[in-house]
Amino acid sequence: MIQQFQFEELDLKGAYIIKPFVAKDERGDFIKDYSEEVFKENGLDHELKEVFYTSSEKGVIRAIHFQRVKEQAKLVRCLTGKIFDVIVDLRKTSPTFGKWRGFYLSGDRKESLYVPEHFGHGYLVIEPSIVSYKCSEKFYGDLDDGIMWNDPDLRISWPLDLVDNKIILSEKDKNLQSLGEFIGKITTSI
Ligand SMILES: Cc1cn([C@H]2C[C@H](O)[C@@H](COP(=O)(O)OP(=O)(O)O[C@H]3O[C@@H](C)C(=O)[C@@H](O)[C@H]3O)O2)c(=O)[nH]c1=O
């Protein structure tokens, strides 16, 4: 069985759910989740600068992160386990500015989420998971930024019942700004 790449653009323009190429046979799966050429054919000029992985326990929330100035587009895939992945449109001129969308990503479904530049990104870990990121810009620690996971304006409906309401946050993520504070600091024209 062969499944070709499939790209579905979301209503937050520029963001996509992407089904990878999968060749399944009696040995298991062959999965290709990035091809510069195929991405270009589908309108995504995604230059690859860094790839990294996180492993997380059930209940971990990695909050709504982004990188200022040196904006990073990210192709995010849950390799094993299951997560509830959230993107937030932080482009102040966008009709969907300040809107969030959530998607279940899992090792079984194999889909990637394409997170464009000027978006926030975070997730809740439903089952112990390994998540991969293919980034269009390298990491700059001093430009690393984020918004609190439980922001009162964003009102993200995290499925906390699936983790028995027990969450694990980094010290950094316990002290992030609100969306309102972030908006007060926006200087870009995008
Ligand atoms: C993200 C990142 C972190 N680091 C370092 C900084 C720190 O010492 C350690 C852990 O970093 P953090 O606590 O920021 O990791 P984490 O909270 O997992 O941050 C990630 O969250 C998700 C939601 C994203 O979208 C990612 O882009 C990234 O922001 O790794 C790098 O060296 N390179 C990187 O690209």
TrEMBL record:
<dbReference type="GO" id="GO:0005829">
    <property type="term" value="C:cytosol"/>
</dbReference>
<dbReference type="GO" id="GO:0008830">
    <property type="term" value="F:dTDP-4-dehydrorhamnose 3,5-epimerase activity"/>
</dbReference>
<comment type="pathway">
    <text>Carbohydrate biosynthesis; dTDP-L-rhamnose biosynthesis.</text>
</comment>
<dbReference type="GO" id="GO:0019305">
    <property type="term" value="P:dTDP-rhamnose biosynthetic process"/>
</dbReference>
<comment type="subunit">
    <text>Homodimer.</text>
</comment>
<feature type="active site" description="Proton acceptor">
    <location>
        <position position="65"/>
    </location>
</feature>
<dbReference type="GO" id="GO:0000271">
    <property type="term" value="P:polysaccharide biosynthetic process"/>
</dbReference>
<protein>
    <recommendedName>
        <fullName>dTDP-4-dehydrorhamnose 3,5-epimerase</fullName>
        <ecNumber>5.1.3.13</ecNumber>
    </recommendedName>
</protein>
<comment type="similarity">
    <text>Belongs to the dTDP-4-dehydrorhamnose 3,5-epimerase family.</text>
</comment>
<feature type="active site" description="Proton donor">
    <location>
        <position position="133"/>
    </location>
</feature>
<dbReference type="InterPro" id="IPR014710">
    <property type="entry name" value="RmlC-like_jellyroll"/>
</dbReference>
<feature type="site" description="Participates in a stacking interaction with the thymidine ring of dTDP-4-oxo-6-deoxyglucose">
    <location>
        <position position="139"/>
    </location>
</feature>
<dbReference type="InterPro" id="IPR011051">
    <property type="entry name" value="RmlC_Cupin_sf"/>
</dbReference>
<dbReference type="Pfam" id="PF00908">
    <property type="entry name" value="dTDP_sugar_isom"/>
</dbReference>
<dbReference type="InterPro" id="IPR000888">
    <property type="entry name" value="RmlC-like"/>
</dbReference>
<comment type="function">
    <text>Catalyzes the epimerization of the C3' and C5'positions of dTDP-6-deoxy-D-xylo-4-hexulose, forming dTDP-6-deoxy-L-lyxo-4-hexulose.</text>
</comment>
<keyword id="KW-0413">Isomerase</keyword>
